[in-house]
TrEMBL record:
PANTHER family: DIENELACTONE HYDROLASE, PROTEIN AIM2. This is Alpha/beta-hydrolase. The keyword Cell membrane does not apply. The keyword RNA-binding does not apply.
Length: 200
């Protein structure tokens, strides 16, 4: 299973802990998508966080190359026969890109994806599970409806779950003092595990 991180990348302790949790069930690879240039953990997500310059340093072509290299490593060096992938926020765009036919990922799970485009959803060939937050502005009700409509039209194998009271980032960085967010994080983890158990 490839863990495709949010903008905070490998340095974020919560990403490492979540990857470790999945590693109790499946071997997990978590590539450094940003060559050591992840958004600092001290920068909280929100209107004040300007990602324009940072995104320009990490265009899709660069992330695609890292994804392709990771898939190649899993197959050729580790002998993986089938590959699942988890994508959170930023990473939620890249799992669908590599769920396209012949791209190397067989089964995917994404939570509160950002910058996910309709064409990327249309290209999905493998089974996909989506965990969405009711309060997520990046993957809002309209975006969820479009994604589901595309997947239904394709007769895709998919699951789409919306968690009430859950903001963007809930599956990795919830406010654990808020019960609905705490539940959403834990349930999204189990959602991903059961999806891989069923289809990977």
């Amino acid at each position: 299973v490839i863990y495709v991180t949010d903008i905070y990348g490998v340095p974020l302790l919560l990403n490492k802990l979540l990857a470790d949790s999945f590693a109790t069930a499946y071997p997990v690879l978590m590539p450094d998508l940003f060559y050591g240039d992840a958004v600092p953990v001290s920068s909280p997500e929100g209107p004040a966080l300007n990602l324009t310059a940072w995104r320009a340093r990490h265009p899709p072509a660069d992330i695609d190359a890292i994804m392709a290299a990771t898939i190649k490593y899993a197959k050729e060096e580790l002998g993986a026969k089938r590959i699942g992938a988890l994508g959170y926020c930023f990473g939620g765009k890249y799992v669908p890109r590599f769920l396209a036919s012949g791209k190397g990922i067989d089964v995917g799970f994404i939570a509160h994806p950002s910058s996910l485009e309709v064409g990327e959803i249309e290209g999905i060939a493998g089974a996909i599970s989506i965990a969405a937050g009711e309060l997520d502005g990046a993957f809002n009700a309209t975006a969820r409806r479009i994604a589901e409509d595309v997947l239904q039209k394709k007769n895709a194998t998919y699951q789409s779950t919306v968690y009430s009271g859950a903001p963007h980032g809930f599956a990795v960085r919830p406010d654990l003092t808020v019960q609905r967010q705490k539940f959403a994080k834990e349930a999204a983890f189990l959602q991903a595990l059961s999806w891989f158990d069923g289809f990977l």
